Amino acid sequence: MTGGRGAVISLLLVASPAVLRAQGLRDLGVPVDVTASSSAAWHTDRDYGDLFGRLNVAGTWDAWQASLRVDTATFIQPPEPEVDDRYTLEKVAAGWAGRSLEVSAGDAYVSFGRGLGLTLRKIDELGIDTTLRGAKLLVHHGDLSATLAAGTGNINNVDETTGTSADDPYDLIAGGQAQVLLADRLTVGGHATAVAFRDPLGLVPADHYTDRSSVVGLVIDAPRLTERFGFYLEGIEQEVRTEPGAEHPRGFGLYGTATGRLGPATLLFEGKAYGALTLLAPNLEEPAFQAVAYSSPPSVERVQQIIENPPTDIAGGRLRLDWAFSPGLLVYGNLALFRDWLGYADPDSGELVPGSIVDPYAGAEVRWDQGRSWLIGSAGWRAVVVSGGTLVRRDAHVEIEAAQVLDERWSATVQVVHDERGKRDVLLDESYREGTVLAGVRLQPSLSVAAGYDYSTEPTQPHTHYPSGQLGWDFTPSSGVRLFVGSARGGLKCVSGVCRQVPPFEGVKLTATVRF
Amino acid sequence: MSSSITTWNRGLAAVLLAAVMSCAGGDAGGGGPAAPRGGGAPDFALRDLAGRTVRLSDHRGKVVLINFWATWCVPCKVELPHLERLYQEYRPQGLVVLGIAMDGPDSSANVDPQARQYGLSFPVLLDEETRVVAVYNPKRTAPFTVIVGRDGAVAKRREGYHAGDEVEVEADIKALLAVRADRP
Q1: Which of A187, A416, A495, A515 best probes binding to B when mutated, by most B CB atoms within 10 angstroms?
Q2: What is the ipTM, given to two decimal places?
Q3: Which pLDDT value is given to residue A26?
């Protein structure tokens, strides 16, 4: 397919919501909801353009539901052979949902417990959107509920930040979960998952679907056991078979939370203990897809925290105290301690030795002008220490977001993120800083203008300074366009314990979202 | 490139199939949920913070504001107290607010403490699977608000939160509450 023909197809898909809307399909009795997003960018640093489109259409008729998503990626002067045009029916599903039974065929999201055994879900911030393409059955009957699902893993085939694409892994996945609610307060359940990987997980060549994993888990959940106390507890055992005849490693995971409430205070303890745990993930060669996984044990760390080691041999927890002094003033403090046996290189000996992680941080939320003006900030310092007290990693961080209402229509916003990071190894002793400052104004109900400045002294980054300007126009409350001109730093981006490397951007980017 | 073309042709066929399927549903019978015939807000069932199952169709005939939020989303933190105020003010007239937390396994432990700190009295539901998010908010925008009218159909959608949005949301709610349930 030529680039020109691809561009036409992309433009048609991007414009299709407007066409559908113009035809007044709802008025004709065709019940559809449409969310279409598209972006057109020119990368001035590498002299190429890209056009991404994503069209979601969902329809409902009585208890029947159907949905589909079409993704397009078209490149102009692409930097061969890294990227390629791609047009994919990314997700398609149809199902019937009654009060006691829900059945669906096609793509479905599945997650058991807190993700230790299986979690196929959307993390759009990282370009991850993994579903199970097959069949899913949900049963709700009184206090009983159960889920059964089987199919193959279906990943987001195109990574929009890099333009690279990958085929679906076609790993076979099957699992089930059953839960019962006791005395209206305590949920007890179990789950089991089996995965047969099409491509071998390790470096040893093997036939398709010979590498397999199985996970069984138990869950006890009592979020409001009493008015003041609740808890969650989950334990799993995992077996991974990678080589015929070899010993099958068994891993375990324990995760739990306890919440106490007293007056204006809420106390949360969250703990984990993982041993020889394997993060279940498809064997995808493209680096941009390395964050795709079938399981995601809770990291118990900050959502934005850069985590160097996968949480496979680690134990510890965090204690967080929230205090509401008034509706306009909330403060919290958090202390996390972990022991990571996966290890860090000792700067003196070079040996891989266990590390201890200390992570205190605190924050506050202040509101005024009847909650329309606000400041939300946090700061902390995370350190990793190996035996003998040697500091091998350090991360001091500050995050501030604030808004001030100027009059009935105008408001000003500012966002500041700053990190001071350090890494000490046998061969290097580096420290760097990076951050973002974004200041803007908003004219209700539709216009936003902002100026941004990213900076990074991280050695692999191409520049230190990344200025930018942004303009947004919301032509309806749920649809709008955004124009970005300038540059943005790259680096490791983490969301919910999942991290991936994001490349820097230089150029012009126009994004549009249409919903109806 | 041939694989792309194959993928595209296969995709096109499936698009047509799905389009037919989306229009071909029949009467679900007495066991079906409460979506209005001819299309409406898709029904869903999620657990709340106490572990009880809450369904959208349980609130048929009321104006339902569904707010997708997450504990890691700063604008969500600003918007939630406004939604609580609206809930308190308009609940007697038939407003229901359902807060759907999009937090995954890694941060869902923070949902209950945060809801408590903000004094949220409306049901907060957990969508750890992103099952409902994928239907109503496929871009996974946070916050994202959907208002379902008394007729069971989606009436309004709103992306994000900016200072002053609560005034427009309140106007939308008042207008929808004023509409009788049996009005076409």
Answers
A1: A515
A2: 0.91
A3: 58
